[in-house]
Q: What sequence folds into this?
């Protein structure tokens, strides 16, 4: 049971612009990065392979995986972080599971998630 | 200004700070507390204010009720004294409200609470012994093991780590940073963990 006082604190910190993200989605995450005085935006493009820590609080994280020169790279991104500029949805994937950890064992063509043909 | 407050631990969560980083916080519902008694050095030998927290109506004896009469703020469940200097004592009045606004974000505080009681605990839980393996013919699982040598010294050393009562003791955590103060809800957010279970009594001191 979540206590009301904690719930209000968490809900006040939530962002409601990324609720549509699902496992299997191909997305581009735009993160604000502060380097000393300067600020820039880093883009990380990959597949969502997991959503963790529940969806009704500010602790939700997504795991985004991509292949970089033959190596798998995963980034865990707090979905409600104020440092997220935006998340671009490139396409939805044809997946049957909530956690796509089987992707870690796959290489080459079989590591591709089939896009869903909805648009 | 009184340098402390009585509160109730609500639980833990995490928040994003100004830099966009995640900070683990303990939410404490602290105050409002009221000054119940002033201790003066001439009369009591030291200067302090006694503050009360949490309303209580029932099961009070007459002498207990009499103690709260002078402050005229009702009857409290919890009382705690905080030392103040002589000039500070003069600036306070009986029945005065003390709220979380005495704290500011970024300040370091000490938080005292009573840890969760674990009852009679074995050495693995109480002293972090590693224990033995469970299978493959092992006959040594969670036991204490050897507690000493033989004829020399011929005794078990004092303070040897052994099973026994664990938890349910007062613990103070020093140097916790205050992350956020919200006086409207009487809520304090402190970085990191605080002793005790949610709902437990805590003392916050500067």
A:
């Amino acid at each position: 049971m979540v206590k009301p006082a904690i719930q209000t604190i968490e809900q006040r910190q939530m962002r409601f612009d990324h609720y549509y993200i699902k496992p299997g989605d191909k997305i581009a995450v735009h993160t604000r990065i502060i380097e000393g005085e300067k600020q820039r935006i880093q883009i990380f493009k990959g597949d969502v392979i997991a959503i963790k820590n529940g969806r009704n609080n500010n602790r939700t994280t997504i795991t985004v995986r991509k292949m970089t020169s033959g190596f798998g790279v995963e980034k865990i991104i707090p979905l409600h972080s104020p440092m997220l500029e935006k998340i671009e949805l490139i396409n939805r994937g044809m997946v049957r599971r909530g956690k796509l950890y089987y992707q870690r064992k796959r290489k080459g063509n079989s590591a591709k998630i089939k896009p869903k043909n909805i648009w | 200004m009184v340098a402390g407050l009585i509160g109730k631990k609500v639980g833990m969560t995490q928040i994003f700070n100004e830099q966009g980083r995640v900070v683990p916080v303990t939410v404490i519902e602290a105050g409002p507390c009221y000054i119940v008694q002033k201790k003066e050095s001439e009369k009591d030998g030291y200067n302090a204010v006694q503050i009360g927290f949490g309303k209580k109506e029932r099961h009070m004896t007459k002498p207990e009720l009499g103690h709260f009469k002078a402050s005229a703020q009702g009857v409290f469940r919890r009382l705690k004294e905080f030392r103040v200097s002589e000039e500070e004592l003069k600036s306070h009045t009986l029945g005065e409200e003390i709220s979380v606004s005495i704290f500011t974000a970024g300040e370091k505080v000490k938080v005292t609470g009573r840890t969760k009681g674990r009852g009679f605990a074995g050495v693995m839980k109480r002293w972090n012994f590693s224990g033995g393996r469970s299978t493959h013919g092992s006959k040594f699982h969670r036991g204490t093991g050897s507690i000493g040598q033989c004829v020399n010294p011929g005794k078990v050393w004092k303070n040897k780590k052994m099973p026994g009562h664990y938890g349910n003791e007062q613990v103070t955590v020093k140097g916790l940073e205050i992350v956020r103060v919200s006086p409207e809800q009487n809520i304090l957010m402190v970085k990191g963990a605080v002793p005790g279970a949610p709902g437990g009594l805590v003392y916050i001191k500067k």
User: Anything to note?
Assistant: Helices of chain A lie at 4-12. The domain at 11-105 of chain A is CATH 2.30.30.790 (SH3 type barrels.).
